[in-house]
Amino acid sequence: MAKIRVGLLFGGRSGEHDVSICSAQAIASALAAASNSSQYEVLPIYIQKDGFWQSGDLAQQVLTSGEPLHLSADWSPPINLLSHLSTAHLPEIDVWFPILHGPNGEDGTIQGLLTLIQVPFVGTGVLGSAVGMDKIAMKTAFAQAGLPQVNYRAVTRAQIWSNPCVFPKLCDQLETELGYPCFVKPANLGSSVGIAKVRSRPELEAALDNAASYDRRVIVEAGIKVRELECAVLGNDSPKASVVGEITYTSDFYDYETKYTAGRAGLTIPAEIGPALMENIQAMAIQAFLAIDGAGLARVDFFMSNRLVKF
To answer: By residue range, what is the domain housing residue 165?
Structure first.
């Protein structure tokens, strides 16, 4: 039987470019494992930081080395990228596996392109990707579904980068509504990029300014002492949840360095929680997955404080 040709799409035009390469390596390794190697053939498709798509030896070089492709100063991509993509890549691939992180990858844009050119791909479609990427839209969907959440406030870049009279009032409101510590996050980034834990007015002002440099939408969440749990969901209309795992770390919070530096964080599977709580979290993971119209696969994160579980 012929192998299924998987177009592994990675890299991308976001601050999480390097993380995407790491994720692609993990998936390629899994598809090459003894139990899968006879079924799948991986065709790497690498999106450079400037947005140009590479296949063949250059894409394989990046996937193997884990290092982004460095462009020369005089590099200029061909004008007609869509023509290049159509003729060079589409005929070879049976199913696409987008493993892009951040904007132009997780936010529905690449899913829209793959939908437009009518090719099958792994994972959530345009709607679920867009809602799942935007923390504010996602929390709105979760609220409608009745899921418990940490207290938060959505703000915009226009409010943050406003005149000297408006910004102090915004900070006053955040201090009153959420208090310290709190977390400031760009609404449309992952991997803890642009996130800060703040404990004072100067830190709050600096964190808001930094988050606004990444995204025009920013979310501020109350900081609470919690255990961090996560659950995988697989499926489409009738999804199923995995056992629950727990993330542990010694840093102040689960920041970029902690996530991607070996030995800085641990994962306990299954988490040391009772069976009733395990089932409750699994049920909420599926509920969250359906609330954003998820498909294929997802990881759902939870905060647990005094046995109360929140998103």
So the answer is: 152-222
